Sequence to fold (155 residues):
Amino acid sequence: EISVRDWSSDVCSSDLGPHHPHTLAALHHHAFWIGQAGDEARARELTAELLPQLKRVLGDRDIETVWCQHNLAVWIGRTGDPAQARDLLAELLPITEESPGAESPYTIATRRELAYWTELAEGGVADGGAEAGVEVAEEGAVGAEFEDTEAGGGG
Fold:
C-alpha cells in the first residue's frame, strides 16, 4: 500500500527533484489536507519538517513559505501551544505587511490569527473557539468567503 504523500513525493521528486518548488508545494498541500482531515498533530509534524526546506529553496518571503509558516503556527496552536503559535505569527506579520502588503488577504489573515492566538496564550477565550474554522490557508483561500476550505484556529 502506498500513501498519497509517498506517491506525490515520488512522482514530483523523480520528475522534478526533491527540492523543486513544485515538489515542496505538493508536500505543503499534502500536510494541509492531513490537518483538514483531522490529524492536526501529523500536519504539524509534516509542516515543521517542510518549513526549513521552503525557506532554504524559496526564501522567507515567498508566498508558499509564508503560508507554510502560517499553517504551522495554527497547527501548533490547535495542538496545544497557543504561545508558540502567537510567536510564529508575530514573526511572520512584518513579512506579510511588506509583501504582499498591509491590505492583502494574507496579511489580514495573519493579523486575525495573531489576535486569536494572543488571546488564548494570555489565558483568554477567543471568539469562535478553536473550531471556528478560519485562517489555515490553502494557497489563495483566505477570508470568510473561503471558510469551507480553511481549517484555522481563530476567528
